[in-house]
Amino acid sequence: MAIASIRSAILLSFLVLFLGPYLRTAKLCSCSDDHKVGSCHSIERLALLDFKKGVENPSNMLSSWRLDNEDCCKWHGVGCNNVTGYVEELDLNTIKDTTQVIKLKGGISPALAQLKHLKYLDLSDNAFRSIPDQFIGSVKELSLDLTWNEIQGPIRKAIEQMTSLKTLRLGLNDLTGPIPDVFANFTSLERLDLEHNHLEGPIPLSFGAFCKLKELSLSTNNISGEITEFVNGISLCRPNSLLEILDLGDTKLTGNLPYSIGNLKSLRILHLYQTSMNGTNLCVFGAALKAEVPGSLSQCLGR
User: Fold this and answer.
1) What is the pLDDT of residues 192-207, one digit of tens each?
2) Listed residue (267, 271, 273) closest to 286, CA to CA
3) According to the UniProt entry, where is the signal peptide (predicted)?
4) Count of other CB atoms within 10 angstroms of residue 124
5) What homologous superfamily does CATH list for 151-303?
6) For residue range 47-103, what is the model confidence (pLDDT) as tens digits?
7) CA dihedral defined by 55, 127, 150, 189, rounded to 10 degrees?
8) Rounded Cα–Cα distance for residues 163 and 32 (Å)
9) Residue 267: count of CB within 10 angstroms of its CB
10) Nearest to residue 144, comparing CAs of 153, 129, 131, 127?
11) In what order do the strands lie in the sheet with 222-225?
12) Please, are residues 286 and 300 in contact by the beta-carbon 8 Å criterion?
């Protein structure tokens, strides 16, 4: 009896050793009937088709987006995870030919909220005029680019839902009003670009708490006031501020540049051109800083 038990144990060990990898592979490849590894999911395919339904597509840029073309991972501008099949990238910035710039027009369907694994959404250089009230609020660490569209008016309430954004680019639109303090909840934000709009008022105090921020571009707006509170706040980030690019040129900002600017050890690009700011405290950066600043700030920068 003991010999039989030993033989059984040896046989079981043999099976586990040699068949284990195949069993694990079988588990990895276990898929539902309507989904193959690396191909798109039906709920995401339908969400993309809903988006297509709401836009004008004069260049037939979305001609591959068809119900009979089942694998949406192969559609133009769509990038999927090779294993899971979930859509992670959607790049629909403008297509240019030799004669004209052809843009997508219409509405941005809230159905894109079904793309739960989306990491990168580029709708730049199109002609979208608004952001829907319900739009990708639940997507984590998304980079969203809506540069150079026709989005008008105040920054919409829809932005309030996007607190997990990693990058937000809304430059070259027609945004008006103050920069909302709702950005205080954007704790994952690394890059914020609102340049070339018609925004006004001060930089929100909450921006001084953006310790993950690497880029802030607010140039060519009507923002006013001083930047002392913002710079003082972000200079207190520990172990160091990550801010690399600060573009505040062509604005109505005034006052002295605070000495705490010297604590921004990662700062490499500073634009304060066409402002009424002054001071002489950029010497700590020396040649490491690429700056476009008023004359009173240019000492020690070799300009």
Assistant:
1) 999 999 999 999 999 9
2) 267
3) 1-25
4) 20
5) Ribonuclease Inhibitor (3.80.10.10)
6) 999 999 999 988 889 999 999 999 999 999 999 999 999 999 999 997 654 445 689
7) 80
8) 33
9) 24
10) 131
11) 152-153, 174-178, 198-201, 222-225, 252-256, 276-278
12) yes
**pLDDT at position 24:** 39
Confidence of residue 280 (pLDDT cuts 50, 70, 90): low
With beta carbons less than 8 A apart as the criterion, state whether 265 and 239 touch: no
pTM of the model: 0.84
Angle (CA) 229-231-234 rounded to 5° is 105
Residue 221 and residue 253: Cα distance in Å, rounded? Answer: 10
Q: What is the pLDDT of residue 31?
A: 35
User: What is the sign of the dihedral through the CA atoms of 125, 126, 131 and 132?
Assistant: negative
CB atoms within 10 A of CB 245: 18
